[in-house]
Amino acid sequence: MVSQGLALMLSQSGHAVVGLATDGEAAVKEAIEKKPDLILMDLKLPELSGIEATARIMEQSPIPVIAITGFQTEYTSIDAANAGAFGYLVKPISASDLLPAISIAMARFKSWFTVKVELEQLRDTLETRKFTEQAKGIIMQRLQLPEGPAYAHLREKCRNQQKTMKQASLEIIEAEHNFIEQLAKEPPSRMRSARFGNERPSQTEQT
Fold it and tell me: How many Å apart are CA 158 and CA 155, to the nearest integer?
């Protein structure tokens, strides 16, 4: 009855209801498949609680969620916020409560998502810088190059192979790790033969 009442209020306000879930597991499935602009999530649901369902949705496919409950307590509102809810309503819900809550939740989500993207970009930039420095160090050591030419060599690898700086750096780092692991397993003579295949084996190795 509550769901039908909310659906009616939303329709009368110009919103389209694209799905209705009767338990937490179904709520997560509907959210992932249909990717609505907003979710009204009752916190008391069978199979999976609304708080757990909200946390799963925010982890897999972030969508603004308004938590709905029959009673409000400090711990319930904190749990809902920690799970990722951007709004909180207590039943019975009127249109005068619902519509402002939707606007606020959407605005909060937009701000949160913008910060999230910026943080991810910053994290990626820092990771790329770290891997680039490691790869450059490997090139300097293996090819006996100064820092500038080593960096130029790395950039040329990116251009020739059409890869990002992060991808090219990770490949060099992985190749170096694999070589060191192989070096630890193989006798030095066999490793020299593997690295310098054009060299003639010694008399001992021929024997």
Answer: 5
